[in-house]
Specification:
The complex is a heterodimer of chains A (112) and B (86). Chain A is mainly alpha-helical and 112 residues long. Chain A is built from four helices and no strands. Helices cover 88% and strands 0% of the residues of chain B. Classes of the chains: A mainly alpha (112), B mainly alpha (86).
């Protein structure tokens, strides 16, 4: 029974990780790729780690480490994604030509 | 059960191989950082599952270090891109 739960959780996580990786390869610009990578953590890495916690039990050596890694990823990933997107925007990485909204540029144009 | 862990570790390494395309072909440096960030997360998960498969406790700490310090690397890289060296 536990093995079935582990397999299902790991399959969900792996499917999301693979689709996120394909999205990182196929998406047109940096900002879309950052969005794909953060989805990849939240829906791809967390179910896989939860599968390890379910399989080993939360108080064992591997289960506690998996829980710690899951909490760490959940906390640090938005910070890293935000810092990366901000740095990419400030260094002038061009957006995809089909993008419809750039609210930072709109606001700057309104101020000046 | 341990065969399942090995299968999950190999599958995550396969996802890393897909991300390697973007790491090699990214037009700007930000693309490469995004791909490297995702790859290091997958590597941490793969190491953790391999540790559970091989029943080696000491590999768990490798996964923990990889998960925490890769993000530190991403943050340092983005700060460097934004403001220069200092």
């Amino acid at each position: 029974m536990i093995e079935i739960i582990v397999i299902v959780l790991a399959a969900i996580g792996w499917a999301f990780s693979l689709s996120g990786a394909v999205g990182i390869v196929r998406m047109p610009d940096v900002y879309c790729r950052i969005q794909c990578s953060s989805k990849m953590i939240t829906m791809g890495a967390l179910p896989v780690l939860v599968a390890l916690v379910v399989g080993e039990g939360p108080i064992t050596v591997f289960g506690s480490r998996a829980l710690l890694v899951a909490v760490l990823l959940l906390v640090i990933n938005p910070v890293a994604s935000h810092a990366l997107a901000r740095a990419a925007y400030k260094t002038g990485v061009p957006m995809w030509p089909g993008a419809v909204a750039d609210q930072v540029a709109d606001r700057r144009r309104g101020e000046s | 059960m341990s065969q399942v862990y090995l299968a999950v570790a190999i599958a995550e390494v396969a996802v890393m191989a897909v991300l390697l395309i973007r790491l090699a072909a990214g037009p700007t440096i930000s693309d490469r950082i995004v791909a490297l960030n995702a790859m290091s997360t997958q590597a941490a998960i793969a190491v953790l599952f391999f540790a559970a498969f091989a029943d080696r406790t000491i590999y768990c700490d490798v996964a923990l270090w990889l998960a925490s310090f890769s993000y530190l690397g991403a943050i340092v890289w983005s700060r460097y891109l934004e403001r220069g060296l200092l």
